[in-house]
Amino acid sequence: MENFQKLKELIVAAEADVANFYDKGNKAAGTRVRNAMQTLKVLATDIRKEVTEKKNAQ
Prior knowledge:
Layout: H1 2-24, H2 27-57
Helix pairs in contact: 1-2
């Protein structure tokens, strides 16, 4: 559950950069968005592993 909370916080934190990149064309914001998406990918993978482990432990 901790990783899921981190994932939600990361999405909220990246929202401003997404707006800056798409609305204003800020290339530096695009780099930050890509980095945030990579971190999201890692967190999502970790959450999948946790869910699988918990499901199989029952």
